[in-house]
Amino acid sequence: MKYVDEYRDARAARELMRAIRAAVTRPWKIMEVCGGQTHAIVRFGIDEMLSGQVTLIHGPGCPVCVTPLETLDKAIAIASRPGVILCSFGDMLRVPGSDGDLFAVKSRGGDVRVVYSPLDALAVARANPAREVVFFAVGFETTAPANAMAAYQARRLGMRNFSILVSQVLVPPAIEAILSSPDCQVDAFLAAGHVCTIMGVEEYVPIAEKHRAPIVVAGFEPLDILQGVHMCVRQLEEGRAQVENQYTRSVRADGNRQARKMIREVFQVVSRKWRGIGEIQHSGLGLRPEYATLDAEKRFGVESMVADESHECVSGLILQGLKKPVECPAFGTRCTPETPLGATMVSSEGACAAYFRYRREAAAAAARINQRT
């Protein structure tokens, strides 16, 4: 495939592997932040190729995975109300809440619709003036500009039947929280290229300096990841802790200024809960006071809803890089994409879904061994 095959070149990959081997003098642990990177790593066996020299640890993954249980419960409660149309990206519909998911609401007659852009949800609201239309706004910084634009347009048009259930999270505070944990096992990070395409790289500089941890912004293809690992290893071996940009074909130091301006217009930084991890200070976005009338939590009175995470699902430990999917006793047995216990098995970018798709037999065998021991 043009413009993709170039980044899957086997000869170039072998050259990068030789360069990594030549640079490594001791084992290092590097965490990739993005689930898209995780799927590429597992699909192409990059972690296995690096085994013994560099351990790749799977991180927070994707916003679907870290959306807290209580936020899913709020979405389900809103979608279950008569006269409501809830619009969402498709990957949220099968994420389990405390009791079922959005697909179950749809099967019971709820009007739950898959959209491909928040502006599609705005169009639904304009076409249905007698109905309440709610958009489930989930995402890292990548989706924030489009979600902000939907709110901006709704306010500008004076739309009274449109609101947003916001679950926007920010990557740098999550990296800070992981590095600050006494259980942290991470020496360096591969930051998500698409996030930095929007936000730039400057937010990572004080984190790298404070924790003496290299952060390399990387893309999502095998050569992107291998080059990012090589850049991390060189820094670690040389005793440096800097922010470097491997993904130069997309990321500029200051990101996308217009997108960042739109985010600032609509959103303000707030603290947010991350599923399986807990609350991280200053790790999310919420609507500014002037956009409060578009806040679905307030409009439908679900602000106070809380929920306890499943004790059986270990996705929180997986999202922090403390466990891998094969170390979960439920993997491939009680927890599958058809019967998920947690979001990491449902999401198209979840670590458990990656292992189930690409390494099901080996991972299931390892899980059975773990069960016996």
What does this protein look like?
42% of the residues lie in helices and 19% in strands. The chain is α/β, with parallel strands linked by helices and 373 residues long. It has three domains: 5-61 and 178-245, HypD, alpha/beta domain 1 (Rossmann fold, 3-Layer(aba) Sandwich); 65-170 and 255-299, Rossmann fold (3-Layer(aba) Sandwich), CATH 3.40.50.11740; 315-372, no CATH class. It has helices spanning 10-23, 35-43, 46-49, 63-66, 69-79, 102-107, 118-127, 144-157, 171-180, 193-199, 205-211, 222-238, 257-266, 296-299, 315-319, 343-346, 351-358, 360-372, and strands spanning 28-34, 54-61, 84-88, 111-114, 132-139, 162-169, 188-192, 215-218, 243-245, 267-274, 278-287. It contains 18 helices and eleven strands. The radius of gyration is 21 Å and the shape is globular. Helix 6 (102-107) links the parallel strand 3 and strand 4 (111-114). A six-stranded mixed sheet has the order 4-3-5-6-11-10, sandwiched between helices. Strands 2-1-7-8-9 form a five-stranded parallel sheet.
Summarize the structure.
The protein contains 18 helices and eleven strands.
Which characteristics define this entry?
11 strands, Rossmann fold, 6-stranded mixed sheet, 373 residues, 5-stranded parallel sheet, 19% strand, alpha/beta
Classified in CATH, the superfamily of the largest domain is HypD, alpha/beta domain 2
**Could you describe the largest sheet, including whether it forms a barrel?**
6 strands, mixed
Spatial arrangement of strands, main beta sheet: 4-3-5-6-11-10
Query: What is the count of distinct domains?
Result: 3
Beta-strand level of the residues, as a percent range?
15-25%
- Unreliable spans are none
- In CATH terms, what is the fold-level topology of the largest domain? Rossmann fold
Count of DSSP helices? 18
What is the CATH domain class of the largest domain? Answer: Alpha Beta
Distance between the termini: 45 Å
Number of strands: 11
Assembly of the depicted chains: single chain
- Computed over alpha carbons, the radius of gyration is 21 Å
What gross morphology would you assign?
Answer: globular
Query: Approximately how much helix is present in the residues?
Result: 40-55%
What's the overall average pLDDT, rounded?
92
Tell me what the CATH architecture of the largest domain is: 3-Layer(aba) Sandwich
Q: What structural class should be given to the helix and strand makeup?
A: alpha/beta
Please trace the helix and strand order, writing H or E for each element. Answer: HEHHEHHEHEHEHEHEHHEHEHEEHHHHH
